[in-house]
Design goal:
11 helices; alpha/beta; two-stranded antiparallel ribbon; globular; TIM Barrel; 295 residues; eight-stranded parallel beta sheet
Amino acid sequence: MADTPIILNNGAQIPALGLGVLQSEGGEATAAVSTALQTGYRLIDTAAAYFNEREVGQGMRESGVDRADVFLTTKLWMTDYGFDSALRAFDTSIIKLGVEYLDLYMLHWPWPANWSHTVAAYQAAERLLTEGRVRAIGVANFKPHHLRALVRETDVVPAVNQIELHPNFQQPDQLALHRELGILTQAWSPIGGVYGWAGENGTVPPLQNETILAIAQAHGKTPAQVILRWHLQEGRSAIPKSVKPQRIFENFDVFDIELTDEDMAAIATLDTGRRGAIDPDDANPEAIDLTIDAA
Protein backbone atom coordinates (compact mmCIF):
# COMPACT_ATOMS: atom_id res chain seq x y z
CA MET A 1 0.00 0.00 0.00
CA ALA A 2 1.25 3.47 -0.83
CA ASP A 3 -0.16 6.96 -0.38
CA THR A 4 0.23 9.63 -3.05
CA PRO A 5 1.07 13.02 -1.57
CA ILE A 6 -0.89 16.15 -2.43
CA ILE A 7 1.00 19.34 -3.25
CA LEU A 8 -0.20 22.28 -1.15
CA ASN A 9 -0.44 25.85 -2.40
CA ASN A 10 3.00 26.67 -0.98
CA GLY A 11 4.70 23.66 -2.55
CA ALA A 12 4.80 21.48 0.57
CA GLN A 13 3.52 17.92 0.19
CA ILE A 14 0.95 16.32 2.47
CA PRO A 15 -0.09 12.66 2.45
CA ALA A 16 -3.67 12.22 1.32
CA LEU A 17 -4.63 9.84 4.12
CA GLY A 18 -3.77 10.29 7.78
CA LEU A 19 -4.62 9.21 11.29
CA GLY A 20 -6.83 11.46 13.39
CA VAL A 21 -6.56 11.13 17.16
CA LEU A 22 -9.62 12.96 18.47
CA GLN A 23 -10.81 11.22 21.67
CA SER A 24 -7.74 8.96 21.68
CA GLU A 25 -6.26 8.97 25.16
CA GLY A 26 -3.18 7.82 27.04
CA GLY A 27 -1.50 4.62 25.96
CA GLU A 28 -4.19 3.99 23.35
CA ALA A 29 -3.22 7.19 21.57
CA THR A 30 0.48 6.32 21.69
CA ALA A 31 -0.15 2.80 20.39
CA ALA A 32 -2.48 4.05 17.64
CA VAL A 33 0.10 6.51 16.32
CA SER A 34 2.89 3.93 16.44
CA THR A 35 0.73 1.31 14.73
CA ALA A 36 -0.38 3.73 12.04
CA LEU A 37 3.15 4.81 11.19
CA GLN A 38 4.33 1.21 11.09
CA THR A 39 1.38 0.40 8.79
CA GLY A 40 2.41 3.08 6.33
CA TYR A 41 0.57 6.22 7.37
CA ARG A 42 2.73 9.34 7.18
CA LEU A 43 0.19 11.96 8.30
CA ILE A 44 -0.72 12.34 11.97
CA ASP A 45 -3.31 14.92 13.02
CA THR A 46 -3.74 16.11 16.60
CA ALA A 47 -4.67 19.32 18.42
CA ALA A 48 -4.01 21.07 21.70
CA ALA A 49 -7.69 20.52 22.50
CA TYR A 50 -7.35 16.74 22.13
CA PHE A 51 -5.11 16.66 25.23
CA ASN A 52 -2.90 13.95 23.73
CA GLU A 53 0.01 15.80 22.12
CA ARG A 54 2.47 14.16 24.54
CA GLU A 55 1.14 10.71 23.68
CA VAL A 56 1.23 11.44 19.96
CA GLY A 57 4.87 12.49 20.20
CA GLN A 58 5.66 9.34 22.14
CA GLY A 59 3.94 7.19 19.53
CA MET A 60 5.97 8.82 16.79
CA ARG A 61 9.19 8.03 18.63
CA GLU A 62 8.14 4.46 19.40
CA SER A 63 7.20 3.80 15.76
CA GLY A 64 10.81 3.88 14.60
CA VAL A 65 9.82 6.10 11.66
CA ASP A 66 12.10 9.06 11.09
CA ARG A 67 10.58 12.39 12.14
CA ALA A 68 11.40 13.87 8.72
CA ASP A 69 9.15 11.27 7.09
CA VAL A 70 6.09 12.18 9.18
CA PHE A 71 3.70 15.02 8.34
CA LEU A 72 2.61 16.25 11.76
CA THR A 73 -0.33 18.59 12.33
CA THR A 74 -1.58 20.22 15.50
CA LYS A 75 -4.10 22.98 16.12
CA LEU A 76 -4.36 26.13 18.19
CA TRP A 77 -7.29 26.37 20.59
CA MET A 78 -9.54 29.45 20.73
CA THR A 79 -8.55 30.46 24.26
CA ASP A 80 -5.03 31.06 22.91
CA TYR A 81 -6.11 33.26 20.00
CA GLY A 82 -4.31 36.58 19.75
CA PHE A 83 -0.80 37.16 18.44
CA ASP A 84 1.47 36.69 21.47
CA SER A 85 -0.72 34.05 23.09
CA ALA A 86 -0.74 32.02 19.87
CA LEU A 87 3.06 32.05 19.75
CA ARG A 88 3.21 30.90 23.37
CA ALA A 89 0.68 28.13 22.68
CA PHE A 90 2.72 26.97 19.69
CA ASP A 91 5.77 26.61 21.92
CA THR A 92 3.67 24.63 24.40
CA SER A 93 2.53 22.23 21.69
CA ILE A 94 6.08 21.77 20.41
CA ILE A 95 7.28 20.90 23.91
CA LYS A 96 4.44 18.42 24.47
CA LEU A 97 5.02 16.75 21.11
CA GLY A 98 8.77 16.64 21.59
CA VAL A 99 9.52 18.00 18.12
CA GLU A 100 11.35 21.02 16.77
CA TYR A 101 8.91 22.00 14.04
CA LEU A 102 5.44 21.27 12.71
CA ASP A 103 4.44 20.40 9.19
CA LEU A 104 1.05 22.10 9.53
CA TYR A 105 -0.27 24.47 12.20
CA MET A 106 -3.96 25.28 12.14
CA LEU A 107 -6.51 27.47 13.87
CA HIS A 108 -8.95 24.95 15.27
CA TRP A 109 -12.15 26.99 14.79
CA PRO A 110 -13.13 30.46 13.70
CA TRP A 111 -14.19 32.63 16.63
CA PRO A 112 -16.68 34.93 14.94
CA ALA A 113 -17.49 36.90 18.10
CA ASN A 114 -13.80 37.68 18.59
CA TRP A 115 -12.66 38.00 15.01
CA SER A 116 -9.77 40.35 15.73
CA HIS A 117 -8.15 37.69 17.94
CA THR A 118 -8.79 35.07 15.27
CA VAL A 119 -6.95 37.20 12.70
CA ALA A 120 -4.13 37.97 15.12
CA ALA A 121 -3.69 34.25 15.82
CA TYR A 122 -3.43 33.54 12.10
CA GLN A 123 -0.89 36.35 11.75
CA ALA A 124 1.15 34.62 14.45
CA ALA A 125 0.99 31.45 12.35
CA GLU A 126 2.24 33.50 9.39
CA ARG A 127 5.19 34.58 11.55
CA LEU A 128 5.95 30.95 12.40
CA LEU A 129 5.84 30.08 8.70
CA THR A 130 8.27 32.90 7.88
CA GLU A 131 10.61 31.72 10.62
CA GLY A 132 10.56 28.15 9.28
CA ARG A 133 9.06 26.69 12.45
CA VAL A 134 6.12 25.34 10.44
CA ARG A 135 6.05 24.12 6.85
CA ALA A 136 2.46 25.16 6.18
CA ILE A 137 -0.39 26.92 7.96
CA GLY A 138 -4.11 26.43 7.73
CA VAL A 139 -7.46 26.55 9.44
CA ALA A 140 -10.21 24.18 10.46
CA ASN A 141 -13.97 24.59 10.36
CA PHE A 142 -13.88 27.93 8.54
CA LYS A 143 -17.02 28.51 6.48
CA PRO A 144 -16.83 30.45 3.19
CA HIS A 145 -17.48 33.86 4.75
CA HIS A 146 -14.83 33.19 7.40
CA LEU A 147 -12.29 32.27 4.72
CA ARG A 148 -13.04 35.29 2.58
CA ALA A 149 -12.65 37.60 5.56
CA LEU A 150 -9.41 35.95 6.65
CA VAL A 151 -7.89 36.15 3.18
CA ARG A 152 -8.74 39.85 2.99
CA GLU A 153 -7.02 40.60 6.29
CA THR A 154 -3.89 38.42 6.09
CA ASP A 155 -1.06 37.71 3.68
CA VAL A 156 -0.93 33.91 3.35
CA VAL A 157 -3.84 31.94 1.92
CA PRO A 158 -4.42 28.91 4.16
CA ALA A 159 -2.92 25.76 2.71
CA VAL A 160 -5.62 23.55 4.23
CA ASN A 161 -9.12 23.91 5.64
CA GLN A 162 -10.10 20.89 7.72
CA ILE A 163 -13.89 20.56 7.80
CA GLU A 164 -16.65 18.13 8.63
CA LEU A 165 -17.15 16.26 5.37
CA HIS A 166 -18.66 12.86 4.64
CA PRO A 167 -21.38 11.42 2.38
CA ASN A 168 -24.13 12.89 4.57
CA PHE A 169 -22.64 16.40 4.54
CA GLN A 170 -20.72 17.18 1.35
CA GLN A 171 -20.57 21.01 1.36
CA PRO A 172 -20.34 21.69 -2.41
CA ASP A 173 -20.24 25.48 -2.03
CA GLN A 174 -17.43 25.20 0.49
CA LEU A 175 -15.45 22.95 -1.83
CA ALA A 176 -15.94 25.33 -4.74
CA LEU A 177 -14.41 28.18 -2.73
CA HIS A 178 -11.49 25.97 -1.71
CA ARG A 179 -10.81 25.29 -5.38
CA GLU A 180 -11.07 28.99 -6.18
CA LEU A 181 -8.58 29.95 -3.47
CA GLY A 182 -6.24 26.97 -3.90
CA ILE A 183 -6.98 25.54 -0.46
CA LEU A 184 -6.82 21.79 0.13
CA THR A 185 -9.96 20.31 1.64
CA GLN A 186 -9.21 17.92 4.49
CA ALA A 187 -12.12 15.90 5.85
CA TRP A 188 -12.55 15.31 9.54
CA SER A 189 -15.12 12.70 10.51
CA PRO A 190 -14.60 11.47 6.93
CA ILE A 191 -16.77 8.39 7.36
CA GLY A 192 -19.47 10.20 9.32
CA GLY A 193 -18.59 9.09 12.83
CA VAL A 194 -19.61 12.53 14.06
CA TYR A 195 -23.19 11.28 14.00
CA GLY A 196 -22.31 8.90 16.80
CA TRP A 197 -21.30 11.56 19.32
CA ALA A 198 -23.07 14.73 18.19
CA GLY A 199 -26.55 13.41 18.86
CA GLU A 200 -29.24 11.73 16.80
CA ASN A 201 -30.55 13.96 14.03
CA GLY A 202 -32.67 11.47 12.14
CA THR A 203 -30.10 10.72 9.46
CA VAL A 204 -28.77 7.24 8.70
CA PRO A 205 -25.00 7.22 9.40
CA PRO A 206 -22.99 6.73 6.18
CA LEU A 207 -21.65 3.35 7.29
CA GLN A 208 -25.23 2.06 7.45
CA ASN A 209 -26.39 3.55 4.16
CA GLU A 210 -27.68 0.96 1.68
CA THR A 211 -25.98 2.68 -1.26
CA ILE A 212 -22.59 2.57 0.48
CA LEU A 213 -23.16 -1.04 1.53
CA ALA A 214 -23.94 -2.08 -2.04
CA ILE A 215 -20.84 -0.36 -3.44
CA ALA A 216 -18.71 -1.99 -0.75
CA GLN A 217 -20.05 -5.43 -1.61
CA ALA A 218 -19.40 -4.88 -5.31
CA HIS A 219 -15.74 -4.01 -4.65
CA GLY A 220 -15.10 -6.52 -1.89
CA LYS A 221 -14.33 -3.71 0.55
CA THR A 222 -15.85 -2.37 3.76
CA PRO A 223 -18.17 0.65 3.80
CA ALA A 224 -15.45 2.68 5.53
CA GLN A 225 -12.97 1.81 2.80
CA VAL A 226 -15.43 2.86 0.10
CA ILE A 227 -16.03 6.23 1.77
CA LEU A 228 -12.32 6.90 2.24
CA ARG A 229 -11.67 5.96 -1.37
CA TRP A 230 -14.42 8.41 -2.39
CA HIS A 231 -12.59 11.20 -0.58
CA LEU A 232 -9.28 10.36 -2.23
CA GLN A 233 -10.78 10.20 -5.71
CA GLU A 234 -12.32 13.62 -5.08
CA GLY A 235 -8.81 14.95 -4.48
CA ARG A 236 -9.20 15.46 -0.76
CA SER A 237 -7.18 14.56 2.29
CA ALA A 238 -8.94 12.53 5.00
CA ILE A 239 -8.03 11.74 8.60
CA PRO A 240 -10.07 8.80 9.92
CA LYS A 241 -9.72 8.10 13.62
CA SER A 242 -9.27 4.72 15.28
CA VAL A 243 -7.31 3.13 18.11
CA LYS A 244 -7.96 -0.44 16.91
CA PRO A 245 -5.00 -1.92 14.98
CA GLN A 246 -7.21 -3.82 12.54
CA ARG A 247 -9.30 -0.75 11.78
CA ILE A 248 -6.18 1.39 11.40
CA PHE A 249 -4.89 -1.09 8.82
CA GLU A 250 -8.28 -1.39 7.13
CA ASN A 251 -8.61 2.38 6.73
CA PHE A 252 -5.24 2.51 4.96
CA ASP A 253 -6.05 -0.40 2.63
CA VAL A 254 -7.78 1.76 0.03
CA PHE A 255 -5.14 2.24 -2.63
CA ASP A 256 -5.92 -0.91 -4.63
CA ILE A 257 -9.48 -0.04 -5.70
CA GLU A 258 -11.05 2.49 -8.03
CA LEU A 259 -14.66 3.55 -7.63
CA THR A 260 -16.57 3.86 -10.89
CA ASP A 261 -18.18 7.03 -12.15
CA GLU A 262 -21.50 5.44 -11.26
CA ASP A 263 -20.29 4.78 -7.71
CA MET A 264 -19.16 8.38 -7.30
CA ALA A 265 -22.44 9.71 -8.68
CA ALA A 266 -24.43 7.49 -6.33
CA ILE A 267 -22.52 8.74 -3.30
CA ALA A 268 -23.07 12.33 -4.43
CA THR A 269 -26.83 11.82 -4.05
CA LEU A 270 -26.50 11.02 -0.32
CA ASP A 271 -25.84 14.61 0.77
CA THR A 272 -28.41 15.77 3.33
CA GLY A 273 -26.92 19.22 3.90
CA ARG A 274 -27.10 18.56 7.64
CA ARG A 275 -24.13 18.85 9.97
CA GLY A 276 -23.47 16.34 12.70
CA ALA A 277 -21.44 18.79 14.80
CA ILE A 278 -21.65 22.40 15.94
CA ASP A 279 -22.06 25.12 13.33
CA PRO A 280 -18.78 27.08 13.14
CA ASP A 281 -20.75 30.33 13.34
CA ASP A 282 -21.60 29.33 16.90
CA ALA A 283 -18.06 28.41 17.93
CA ASN A 284 -16.64 30.12 21.01
CA PRO A 285 -14.80 29.02 24.17
CA GLU A 286 -18.07 28.88 26.09
CA ALA A 287 -19.82 26.65 23.57
CA ILE A 288 -16.86 24.25 23.58
CA ASP A 289 -15.55 24.64 27.13
CA LEU A 290 -11.93 23.49 27.41
CA THR A 291 -8.87 24.56 29.38
CA ILE A 292 -5.57 23.69 27.69
CA ASP A 293 -2.98 22.34 30.11
CA ALA A 294 0.49 23.80 30.38
CA ALA A 295 3.60 22.11 29.02
